[in-house]
Design goal:
mainly alpha; 3-stranded antiparallel β-sheet; two-stranded antiparallel sheet; 15 helices; about 50% helix; globular; binds iron/sulfur cluster
Length: about 325
């Protein structure tokens, strides 16, 4: 591995596995993120094409609402549970449909892993990934590094302010729904919020927004403590210590215990609630160390004290 501005994580994986396999999960994620946005935009765009006089009932509108609260095909309600918590804190009366929507969303993310929302659904992730890519290309280092727990304080503040004001505090400034609205309804000041996150992540703080500040990501990390689907360093003995997985991972601290914990009797499954199940570690790994598994596949192949990972160095 050569560090510096020309360092390209995953170059070896491209050479060994081919370009598609080395970007497989990234491509699928982008298809998922963009596809979900398109589903939200179909109705408004058709309405616009039909003319100002068109009424929603006259056009095909597959998904109504926003990522905070939506109705798919007029039958499936989906509600952001964090938005429901803010509503309850603010003293609002929630409808039965909103609770059902939140229960469906919670059940889904308990199954697939909470922070799967971040990497497979949230459009802001595309912006922060782009900022990280540019940061690496420019060879930028240093900057502000807030504690990761800051996002939990932001989450708590959002609930406290909601309770104190009776207003859904986070939803006033939530860049996720702002992003969705500016895409759907055109240019507005919302672009400045998205641009601000991009500039902050690029020039001020590495992975500054998603890994340190976003309360929605913090909420889904709490859900992720019980998530079923996990990434596993199943073939960790094949690790060549190229560090590419650490370079691409949005939460690189989650990798070390699974990849390097065999000596301590730790299993290969990445159990950290911060992992976003993005699959980039699997993409860029030439010896295919990583794969998707469940939390139950976490048996260690070595007992504590045994040296099962002699190829794997100790420092991250
Ligand atoms: S941390 Fe927040 S902004 Fe980032 S991907 Fe997750 S929900 Fe979206
Ligand atoms: S460990 Fe892998 S799947 Fe988890 S966040 Fe990092 S790169 Fe993504």
């Amino acid at each position: 591995m050569s560090k510096g501005t020309l360092y390209t994580p995953g170059a070896e994986a491209v050479a060994v596995k081919g370009r598609f396999a080395a970007y497989r999960w990234l491509i699928l994620r982008r298809v998922s993120q963009v596809g979900i946005l398109v589903l939200f935009m179909v109705g408004p765009v058709l309405l616009w094409l039909k003319g100002a006089g068109g009424r929603p009932a006259e056009v095909f509108w597959p998904v109504k609402g926003t990522l905070a609260s939506s109705l798919t095909l007029d039958v499936l309600p989906l509600t952001d549970p964090f938005m429901v918590l803010q509503s309850l804190a603010a003293g609002h009366v929630m409808t039965k449909t909103a609770f059902i929507g939140a229960a469906i969303v919670l059940a889904f993310y308990l199954l697939v892993g909470g922070r799967t929302y971040c990497s497979w659904v949230c459009p802001v992730n595309i912006v922060t990934d782009a900022a990280h890519w540019l940061r690496q290309k420019l060879g930028l280092k240093g900057g502000i590094q807030l504690a990761r727990r800051t996002r939990y304080w932001v989450m708590a503040m959002a609930l406290i302010v909601s309770a104190a004001t009776g207003v859904l505090a986070w939803e006033l400034v939530n860049p996720i729904t702002i992003f969705q609205r500016v895409l759907t309804f055109g240019v507005g000041l919302g672009w400045l919020v998205i641009l601000g996150i991009f500039l902050y992540d690029t020039f001020a703080s590495k992975r500054g927004w998603c890994s340190h500040l976003c309360p929605v990501g913090a909420f889904y990390a709490l859900v992720n403590r019980f998530g079923l689907v996990k990434v596993s360093a199943a073939k960790r003995s094949a690790c060549t210590n190229c560090m590419d997985c650490f370079a691409v991972c949005p939460e690189p601290h989650v990798i070390t215990p699974a990849l390097r914990g065999a000596d301590r009797g730790l299993g290969p499954v990445i159990l950290s609630a911060d992992c976003t199940n993005c699959g980039r570690c699997a993409d860029v790994c030439a010896p295919a160390v990583f794969e998707f598994a469940t939390r139950f596949a976490n048996q260690s192949e070595a007992k504590p004290g045994e040296h099962a990972s002699s190829q794997v160095p100790k420092a991250a």
